[in-house]
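Predict the 3D structure for this chain.
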Amino acid sequence: MRFILLPIFMLVSQLVGAAQVTIQRVSELVIYPAFSAPASVIGLNNSAVSAEVSGVVTEVSVSVGQRVSAGDVLIRIDDFIYQQSVIQAQASLTATAARIELAQYQLQQAKRLGLQNNVSAELLATRKAELATLLADQQAQQAGLAMAERNLAKTKIVAPFDGVVTARFAQLGMQLDPAKPVINLVSTHNIEVSAQLQGDDALIVPRARRLSYEWQGRSYPVQLRAVTPVMDAQQRTQEARLSFIEKKALAGSSGRLHWRSPSAFLPANMLVRRDGQLGVFILDGAQARFVVLASAQEGRSVPLAGLADDAQLIIEGRYTLQDGDSVELAQ
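Done. Predicted structure below.
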């Protein structure tokens, strides 16, 4: 019966004539699928600003949420002891300078008398040693003064960069010790997007089209700075770091990184199944040719692989076609 039906089908096809179809170039149908990954905006400077000298807090100049500029005073520490240290160091230097002046005069006198053979060589050597000792003391005292002045300056804890105060740990009257955090400061200008990429996304994103950070319905164009060559052992992800191109989202915000595939795809609704395989029909002269797309999956867009941009896809009429059917363009 099967062998009888086949000639009948061919006869009917000849009687009916070529199928009416419409076509469209592949280049007019391709899409670039959109993808996304979780992302957040981080400040490259997120610091717990600490005290460098000990003392009692006498002033707190900032509050949580306040914006500050580099150099703004955040906290003041009682500086009485440090002022006295500076005064003491300056006084020591003044006294040493006077002794040096005297030692230089005595050495000159010893040299003059030495030319007249009126002074011993031992005394001349002693005068030289006294001057050298005083000059060394002067250097040590200058270093001590510099340290005292630095400690005095550190009684004013200042912002190391422009940012926003996100936490305040110091209170009036609190005793601070060196290395004790007083303020947490997050940079508002020096920020980046951090995105966690899974699987092949780490290979695709560097070639992606139109990268953007999406947050609260707003889109911020970004550009890739780097993809870390290390995979997180627990999350099985790689981190991408991206820079804002123009406007910037808020530091600390959590959104998504969006990008479009760098490779062209055919929409899923272009696919038809023949003999258990997915593919598309293209116009080949006056015939329909079925092209199998090996990577195609039901309901998913498919890479062009093997299809030329100028190939003519059969759009209308494709569902009833078989490979090799005669076709003509619908008027």
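The chain has five helices and 23 strands.
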